[in-house]
Predict the 3D structure of the following.
Amino acid sequence: MSTKLIVQKYGGSSLNSPSRIRAVAEKIAERARGDTRVIVTVSAMGRSTDDLIKLAREITPHPPQRELDMLLTVGERVSMALLSMALNEIGCPAISFTGSQSGIVTNVSHTRALIEEIRPDRIRRELDGGKVVIVAGFQGVSRSKEITTLGRGGSDTTAVALAAELGAAQCEIYSDYPGVFSADPKLVPAARPIPRLGYDVMLELAVLGARVLHYRAADIARRYGVPLRLLSSFEDGDGTRVGEEVSMETANATSVTCNRHITLVRVVGEGSELDRFCQSLGETDIQVLIYDKARDGGRARLILVVDARDAEPLAAVIEEGGNRGLTVDTPDDQATVSVVGSGFACNARAIARFERVLAGAGIATTAVKSTPQSMTAVVPLARCRRAVEVLHAAFIEAD
Amino acid sequence: MSTKLIVQKYGGSSLNSPSRIRAVAEKIAERARGDTRVIVTVSAMGRSTDDLIKLAREITPHPPQRELDMLLTVGERVSMALLSMALNEIGCPAISFTGSQSGIVTNVSHTRALIEEIRPDRIRRELDGGKVVIVAGFQGVSRSKEITTLGRGGSDTTAVALAAELGAAQCEIYSDYPGVFSADPKLVPAARPIPRLGYDVMLELAVLGARVLHYRAADIARRYGVPLRLLSSFEDGDGTRVGEEVSMETANATSVTCNRHITLVRVVGEGSELDRFCQSLGETDIQVLIYDKARDGGRARLILVVDARDAEPLAAVIEEGGNRGLTVDTPDDQATVSVVGSGFACNARAIARFERVLAGAGIATTAVKSTPQSMTAVVPLARCRRAVEVLHAAFIEAD
């Protein structure tokens, strides 16, 4: 008998109450009938990870990273155990595994570990025994047997990595969003669902702020050719399939996205002082979204965009820079807005149009940059929605 | 009988004399024995395309693009006909096809057309009849039956696109280089050959100056999962295989590359004037390698890096900008140097190290930027070699 393996991932909002968990269990049980084997990756319920972080912060402003990982892994343990109970209750045999039990081996970087290898022996055994296997997302174990977490988007990463390792026929990511759109439908009513998307465009969208899939998961899917499906856990629909590119060479815009959770830092001053600033920056573990440094004689300037959640470790570096005579400016309420597609950027004509559309709507840009697959501008947060609208009208609706 | 299809591509230097063409024919004939079917994509002989462009320029400084395409397609026609003769001479049945005869359908952008579709009926028929099929690289035909060319790297693009369309078992790119190295062995004697490379790293290397494969070809290979092999046509060896990534999530440097054929333009001045400059830029068809624009109040500045061959169309825009009061600076003899890998950039720690290594060697950088898969600095051309050496020592040899 030929069986087909499906990996599903349910995010926190899909599991945020006992009734939601029961509904998810029904969905899984139906899928697991017949010859389909199912692995389910779960996040912590609702916002419980944030609550745990808050708890830790009430104990100490600087919790040891190892203990923070120990604490945070509680979240998925709760949701996976409850989901397993719900499945067994309706007659669908299921078993839950922690990241460690699932054989998800990571490096030693606590709170932001990278998956090095997966040893899915126990998972395979239980699948062969006819059970639905529920795997804690977001967590793993280092070779020295320490508990680690994968950081932001960790559950997406776990699901796609398992699908890659086990050669799943499909990896289904269930979230609040019924797939990828040409812009966020809440911002642009004319936004169109995108039924099919290439890996590279998905990755660029994820990096630039689309919240339907984390970029690490998009990257693994691309590298291993994992067939992805992005679906809503709240409504039926076909969602978005992500796979190999469909056309040979294209030059067109696919989607407009924005990131409203960024911190912009502009630094200007004497070159050697700015270099020292950048070295201090290098002693933090922040992820850099945009890093553009330019030097002209002795003067230099840096445009830095980081995730807003990384602003805290930045504060000390900024203060130190200010004390050393650098002009450090962190304007409040900024956002990035991007047009993502393939082959159209890195083209002077497309960039000029991008800038013209924003200027035509009276939207000031602090920085504009281009990569082969996207054009991005930093704009005031208050104008972000309008920027998405006019770019969508120009690059998607007009074409 | 199960047959296997191989697509080979030979560049101009592999075909630059009758004796080289005969040697290539021997290689092909040996390969085509047994049950392997072979398609060969050829470039024009040696530097003949450059000679044709020079001829056209002696007639008129601004040749109509359509006629330029008509002229340039002569180059592959010569080499494919000669190669077909050499193969038939040694008893290996072969037939040559132009881009149009091969069914390579492009859009209408003369001198830089994108492949929209391939209709390989004639190719299939001749392969089925047991012939080696020689396809002119670099050229195609639009739906309105106009002859087009694909622009730089066009023969690589043709080869990989054919391999994708026909599901070839392998696409072999023969050039002067015996594969990809951790740096150019002419610059860094300690450079190591890279036996296996993921698509994404190959693409980033190609964009940032590695000359072994054009980035459009790397992009098609990645999107269609075409198994690639990069080989020397002058010496035996295993070369570099390019395929799916081998490790789950990594954070390491793969190769150091540089681009010594760039033009750097720095523009500073009043914001609205700089905007006008960028709009003029958008009326040219140049490809932008780096585009970073930053604005601070009414002032703005732009760092622009383009291929040196695009400097000419830039000249008029630069002059116009200067007349309007912008400070436009195009320092001579600049280069970009890049560390390419996966997962390590966008990380403040890695960027700080990148800058420290260059500063430690006394190498001034005009601009530094980072993407998720690379870190790039603009450095003086005269220091480019040294920059490659020290970055290779720090990021490749030390790890």
Q: What stands out?
A: Chain B touches chain A through 72 residues (CB under 8 Å). The longest helix of chain B spans residues 381-397.
